[in-house]
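Support case: user asked for a sample of complex input and structure output to validate their parser. Sending the pair below.
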Amino acid sequence: MNVVYFAWVRERIGLPKEKLSTNAKTVMELVEELRAREERYAVAFSDLSALRVALDQELSDFDASLNGVTEVAFFPPMTGG
Amino acid sequence: MRIQVQDAAFDLGAETERFAKAQDAAGAVVTFTGIVRNNADGTLKCMRIEHYPGMTEKALQKIADQAQERWDLTDLLIIHRHGDMVPGEMIMMVATASKHRLHAFEAAEYLMDYLKSRAPFWKKEMTADGAEWVAAKDSDEDALSRW
């Protein structure tokens, strides 16, 4: 599974993307796995209300299933326009 | 309908004229342009806009499709830049065309409200003191509830 990060999430974790093998069934389970990996992940994922998630480039939510998903993206609320 | 995501600057006048001249069924064209605003102290050196290639185009397409479904538009245009821009530089534009002005005005507002918080762009302000990500405003999210 490809996991990509944008804006300050990318800066805090220190990389724009990575390939992970995971057994996580939901976004939340993936977040828990990442948090447990290293301090920088725990910091980036400390406040989920400050984060958004996209599954295969569609906005989603943290309860969503990862079944069939190939790309997960984490980023702060968007500031377009 | 044309949607463009690009690093390069665009010519607002030329784009608006080309868009307006291409219409034959419309009686109204509305355009909106977003420019880089300086900070309160006037010390902004550069605005850096990051985006999510792939998702950006899909998200803009979805927003544009929704606008076309909702209003009687003969055409619409979205240009949104990414990369580094200085204060006063144009970040993005939307143009909408319809038979009568109300649809064009409303659709342009709708596009802007959704572009603000549903298109994957992130702004970072660079000053001599450092760089800071622009936080999303609650009012931007609230703006969606009126639609």
